[in-house]
Amino acid sequence: MKSIPVSTTINGDPYEFLCAPDETLLDVLRNRLNLTGAKEGCGTGDCGACSVTLNGRLVCSCLVLGAEAEGAEIATIEGMADGDELHPLQRQFIDHAALQCGVCTPGILVAAKSLLERNPDPTDEEVRYWLAGNLCRCTGYDKIIRAVQAAAAEMRGA
Amino acid sequence: MAFDEYQKRDFKQVGTRVRRPDGVDKVTGRAMYGADATAPGMLVGRILRSPHAHARIKSIDTSAAEALKGVKAVLTGADLPVQDEDFIRDVQDNCMARNKALYDGHAVAAVAAVDAATARAALKLIKVDYEVLPHVTDVDVAIKPGAAVVQDGRTLENVPAGMSENLTSHCEFGHGDPEAGFARADKIIARSFRTAATHQGYIEPHAALANVTSDGKAELWCCTQGQFYVRTLCAAIMGMEASQLRVTASEIGGGFGGKTTVFIEPVALALSRKAGRPVKIVMTRDEVFRATGPTVHTSMDIRIGMTKDGKITAAEAHLRYSGGAFPCGTVDMGAQAAFAAYDLEHVRTYGWNVLTNRPKEAAYRAPGAPQAIYAVESVVDELCQHFGLDPIEVRLKNAAKKGTKSSYGPTFPDIGLVAILEAAKAHPHYSAPLAPGQGRGISCGFWFNFGGNSCVSMNINTDGTVGVTEGNPDIGGSRASISLMAAEELGIDYDRVRTIVADTSSLGYNDVTDGSRVTFAVGLATIKAARDAIRVMRGRAAKIWGIEEEAVDWKDGAAIPAGPNAGKFPPMTLAEIAAVSFETGGPIAGHHEVNVDGAGVSFGVHIVDVEVDKETGATKVLRYTVFQDAGKAVHPSYVEGQMQGGAVQGIGWALNEEYIYGADGRLQNPGFLDYRVPVASDLPMIDTVILEIPNPGHPYGVRGVGETGIVPPLAAISNAVSRSAGIRLSELPMSPPRVLRALGG
């Protein structure tokens, strides 16, 4: 199979890469661009550990082809902090002990940021349903919900 | 008082909710997990797996795969040494089948190629000639004489002749005369239960990167709960000396017991040795389900007698656990844990291990305990319902306490069960009104807790900061807890301590991160390493002051004269002593190596409210409260996290999770879509109440907290379902179809 040249934008920076026609965006990010923050937990879109946004839409990057990134704007966990300044969600996750092993954390943070961009003042139930596609096996979700709500309040200036 | 023993003290650092040292790496995507590492010239390794539940491997033709361009090595069981010792042979045969494939998904061959596409193509070119054999995947079928035999010749002497060869071992625990006790009961209830195998369900699939060089040295990077044990197993399989194999544990994306052994690690090493290049293997989720982990699936008979005022007169359990295709000792832990919460005059438990054509069991959080305790707590609850007694009162009436001869032998020292039950009884949750159709259930839980081999080095840096080197992968915040204990003992701020997890060449042997041992045992070794460093620093201060070492004390992070006779010197801080260490004798370090005993047992009680939807059979968890004894909660947030995470894994086990095998012996649901773990929208908040009844065997009173939380949910939810829907189920999970059938739908 002939490789496909792709030009795209990731976390605001221009990127160019070659990928196979059947290569997932997740594999491109991890294996070609060394952006290993997105994780492969299942490869079938069931766990959300590979969550990124593609043109503002929350997607499982294991279900997107690398070639689909052509001309797109992609945001990954690596772009969430502003230099040394953690995003409020990142800081609140640490302060609330909302991670244990941490392998689901990048995906959950990307998903939670995507929620708060749409709904800055969600109910607990809205947070739970939005994050229902992100599996966490360590925490039982309790501290994750609290951390997201704390970040939402902080971002609203509440 | 012995050096290890608990001494009451006012804590300054321990018990605070500090930020974990690996937090920033983990929220920015920088933390390096198993699959995140690369090496120059790295090949991709992939594994061919049996599609049959049970088959003789007549031959494997790898010639076409070897001839494919880009393939650098092909491996089969014939490439690995013949092992004499049963245990290591089982581990090796599970990683790569030798003569028989013993379950659907059993590895039969592996390739290393320049990229994943070539490796996948090569697997398709390997021709395995199988002779399909009769199989058995159900524990109750496997014990019948005449059942398909999974492996012959594995039965221990304590199994009577004439039984199925799948019964490999037997155990028995207890005391008194159960029949005499049953004779005094006003009511005896005997019930049979079954529980499905469940998977630990860690989100990170197994991953290993091996680099074996032609001079016989090897590096292995992998996600594991115990890099030293990985070294032991891989060195045996590879015929290597421990010193030549350095194993580095990556950050670990969950384990829960499932990453306490090896699966792909020896395969990656063997491929690397054969190919002469680094090889990385990352499992797919399908492989994780089919070939790693699950816990035992069980069949159990429980019989309990009770007087009408709620006193248990006798108790008996017969447990049949299957840990898959290899002998497994998990039933011993179930048979010991079953009645641990009760002070019984007459108790007996019997356990049997059974072989089935399923993957080799790996530990899963409190291995063996949730199943047996589910069955026991269900029958105790049914007796409470029969007599109209309060379930907490009945448990208080029969509770194990200090001085109780436990059902498995030892006499308990200070334990927290009565305090936990009292706290649960007094909690607002227990008396909150329920709406019609809702039901409330409770259950006790128990885990032994482990200690074990632990080795800690502590370096006092010249700028007054401290580096702690320990050898246990941090699975849920343990580096923060270890740093807190080091800071507490040294008398300095938490921020001045950094704890790292060492590779196998940098520290002595440490047992696996399992059994809730790390905060307890590694914490104890850390405290002693700090005391060792303090001894050195007292000596340095004594030298500077020109007095005897015995005349120097340590207080609040500084050396001080022991009394007026020692002389008048202002306190000399750790930083001040460290700054001049090169002039007073050289670098300062403390260390400690120990095989820790004295892990205090752990009890918990859970209260849950549920509502069963009688149209769909779905059970909704409405409210949940966990009560558990932590001894001393070193980092309360992560103690709560263990309690919450364990409870939710138990909720998944109770309501949804199960390995489903078809008539063909193949696993039907090897993915997260069909093996359904709890998601955020399934759950309420999980409230926690931490009790602190100090463990007499730890200087700070610490008990392990990781395991117990998964034990009570199974029965607590079953008991709540019984009160919500009027149906008493005896099989897990209580999935909607099963609940509907019980409702007569």
What are the defining features of this structure?
heterodimer, A: 158 residues, alpha+beta, Ubiquitin-like (UB roll), DNA polymerase, domain 1, 5 helices, globular, B: 745 residues, Aldehyde Oxidoreductase, domain 4, six-stranded mixed sheet, 27 strands
3D architecture notes:
The complex is a heterodimer of chains A (158) and B (745). Chain A is of the alpha+beta class and 158 residues long. Chain A has helices spanning 25-32, 88-95, 105-118, 124-130, 142-156, and strands at residues 4-10, 13-19, 51-54, 57-60, 73-75. Chain A folds into 2 domains: 4-79, Beta-grasp domain (Ubiquitin-like (UB roll)); 88-156, Orthogonal Bundle (DNA polymerase, domain 1), CATH 1.10.150.120. In chain A, helix 2 (88-95) packs across helix 5 (142-156). Chain A has 5 helices and 5 strands, in the order ββαβββαααα. With 745 residues, chain B is of the alpha+beta class. Chain B has a domain at 23-31 and 456-588: Aldehyde Oxidoreductase, domain 4 (2-Layer Sandwich), CATH 3.30.365.10. Helix content of chain B is 28%, strand content 24%. Chain B is built from 21 helices and 27 strands. The longest helix of chain B is centred in the last third of the chain and has 28 residues, at 518-545. At the A-B interface, helix 2, helix 3, helix 4 and helix 5 of A face helix 1 and helix 19 of B.
Q: Termini separation of chain A (Å)? A: 54 Å
Placed side by side, the strands forming the largest sheet of chain A appear as: 2-1-5-3-4
CATH homologous superfamily name of one domain in chain B? Aldehyde oxidase/xanthine dehydrogenase, molybdopterin binding domain
% residues in beta strands of chain B: 15-25%
Largest sheet of chain A: 5 strands, mixed
For the terminal residues of chain B, how far apart are their CA atoms? 64 Å
Number of domains of chain A: 2
Class per helix and strand makeup of chain A? alpha+beta
CATH T-level topology of the largest domain in chain A: Ubiquitin-like (UB roll)
Q: How many strand units of chain A?
A: 5
Could you estimate the helical fraction of the residues of chain A in percent?
25-40%
CATH topology of one domain in chain B: Aldehyde Oxidoreductase, domain 4
At the first level of CATH, the class of the largest domain in chain A is Alpha Beta
- Uncertain stretches of chain B: none
Kindly state the percentage of residues in helix of chain B: 25-40%
The residue-averaged pLDDT of chain B reads 97
Tell me which protein chains meet in the greatest interface and how many residues each side has: A-B, 58 and 57 residues
Largest sheet of chain B: 7 strands, mixed
Helix/strand structural class of chain B: alpha+beta
Shape of chain B: globular
Give me the Rg of chain A, rounded. 16 Å
